[in-house]
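Hey, quick one: can you model this chain's 3D structure?
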Amino acid sequence: CYSDNNYPQCLKEIADPPLVLFCKGDISLLASPQLAVVGSRNATIGGREAASNFVRQIANEGMTITSGLALGIDAAAHRAALSVNGATIGVIAQGIDIAYPKRHKTLYQDIVDSGGLLITEFAPGTAPKAGHFPRRNRIISGLSLGVLVVEAEVKSGSLVTAKLALEQNREVFAIPGSINNPMASGCHWLIKQGAKLVENVADILSELNNYS
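Sure thing. Here's the predicted structure for all 212 residues.
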């Protein structure tokens, strides 16, 4: 709960911190330096590959990868962290006892078994609902030093997370793409708004060089 010593200080600093966090896994990761990686559920192959390449390098630098366990970029990010024995946190929009989407049941267990962490503010047995996802997104950004958006349309949950990150005084990074790829339009919009255009991991680490 909010008054517990394990409650992350960074979440206490946001405008609407969750009163309680339900956790499964290694809660010490809540205090670790984190990069949030988010993007489209309908990601392209190239987008998933880009997310995986960035995540593997960031995880090897000792940062925890935090995402929302959705289809597409989120899942690619979690799996890439696991592939290099990196730490990853999945922030979910339902009870800790419910895997959603159902096809990620194995991924949920892999995260816990590998020493990662699942967290939610929703009580066990709570089903996922549309209104839960924006609330989940504020936790993803709030836990993190910065948010990397890999692929996203202009009207998407990923851009909601990026907006929350800016409100929380977090860094926002965006990977550019082809002007013919609608999944890149949200990243291009973020860059126009001042997000840092990133082409490699050094572009991120240079902004977060004081994270340790």
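One thing worth noting: Helices lie at 9-12, 45-60, 73-83, 105-113, 132-143, 157-167, 185-192, 201-205.
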